[in-house]
Amino acid sequence: MQISMTVNGSDVTSEIEPRVLLVHYIREVLGLTGTHWGCDTSNCGTCVVLMDGQPVKSCTVLAAMAAGHDIRTVEGLATGGTLDPVQQGFMEEHGLQCGFCTPGMMLTARALLDKNPHPDDAEIRQAISGQICRCTGYATIVRSVQWAAAHPAGPGLDDAPATGHSAGTGLDGTDTAVPDVAAEIEDTEVKA
Amino acid sequence: MQIPAPFDYVRATTVENALELLARYGPESRVVAGGHSLLPMMKLRLSRPEWLIDINDLYELDFILRDGNKLRVGALTRHTTLLESDEVAGLFPIVRDAERVIADPVVRNRGTIGGSLCQADPAEDLSTVCDVLGAEAVIRGPGGERILSMSEFHRGPYETAVGQDELLCEVRFGIRPRSGSAYEKVERRVGDWAVGAAGAAVTLTADGTVDDAAVGLTALGLDHPLAGAAAVLRGRHPDEELFAEAGRLAAEACNPVADQRGPVDYKRHLADELTQRVLRRACARAAQTQEG
What we know:
The complex is a heterodimer of chains A (about 190) and B (about 290).
Chain A: E1 2-7, E2 10-15, H1 22-29, E3 48-51, E4 54-57, H2 63-66, E5 70-72, H3 85-92, H4 102-115, H5 121-127, H6 139-150
Parallel strand pairs in A: 1-5
Antiparallel strand pairs in A: 1-2, 3-4, 3-5
Chain B: E1 8-11, H1 15-25, E2 29-32, H2 38-43, E3 51-54, E4 64-67, E5 70-74, H3 79-84, H4 86-91, H5 93-99, H6 105-108, H7 113-119, H8 125-133, E6 136-141, E7 144-149, H9 150-153, E8 154-156, E9 159-160, E10 167-174, E11 179-186, E12 196-204, E13 210-218, H10 229-233, H11 240-253, H12 264-288
Parallel strand pairs in B: 1-3, 2-3
Antiparallel strand pairs in B: 4-5, 5-10, 6-7, 6-10, 8-9, 11-12, 12-13
């Protein structure tokens, strides 16, 4: 089936199998590997992307269900070479160690700050409570988000469409081959 | 990598269209809304629909509307919307109590009240909430619309009265004066299934005695509201002695199973303690409410 959506401000159209999950579509078809693929069971939250501005777990959304919607990934956070304050905050306050949970954490933080520019620590912890970090104990993540809340300045954070470094022009309207997502599972029959 | 078995996907445009698609594709089709129960089941091949009918574009089912002495909630209303609704929290504080602890904030952005009720997981919080509030389920199908009580709607774990060619469209809650409600869950961590939970809804008379009451348990082996709760509570003044009596009744009536979340005696203790807590809070809230 053919799907179209907006990813980091660029229109994309692809031919996919209906069973392709959004996380795999983003990573393998669009090549945006900043969105991580973790537990596959909507527990860990490393696959979080923004769908129409709201954090969603992209391992539990079909790419087909995202068609027609506006998707923002970690590649879409920085604009014109300027880091989003959330990204800067994670640098300033050491919000990551291994970095696996970081893309999801930052997107949830971005959505939280868009809705509530001055959250308290409890609100930050609540917002990221569906996401797992095994390095930081969360303390530095909370401080990173507080840093971003205290430094909201930044040129056109949500204005300009972001074509992050790995998004590029190849995203724009390019039909991309469907990855063989079934290759790693036993049950590979494909519907006619 | 967990990927669902192959299926065909179609997006419904209206309720009528969804019903047509259900009729056309038959028993091997499934409706998907938030997808946070169905898609994991499809990944594990516990569910293998041939057709997936996506109803996320049915914005006509995404509403919270006060209509006389009823609050009408569309089946596609997301958990986040329910959690954040001050109108819902004012009328039925149990809903906000429960929504705070349903899954996690990101999952709540997708999950819907209709999906939760139709999934009918024994650990599903909104089933208990709707039970104790005496909600009605509005179901549409080829034969038109029918309205069921929750006891008619719930057939058991993972089973409801919604037919294969039908769609749950709306949940209606009766608004009653001098009423209060509360919910409390014990879970090991955010997003985990409940170890146990309890919900209560209470209506008081003008002199402060209990006029009507319902108690329900989640994940503790009690499918329907606690039988006899209203009979025990009605006509009496809400006090600690009464809450303790109701707690004992709940502990005796429940039928929990031992699993990795705890042994039976602990879960019975939860049924007792949580019943007391939610009744205490529901009665306090009812006493504060002047009218519905």
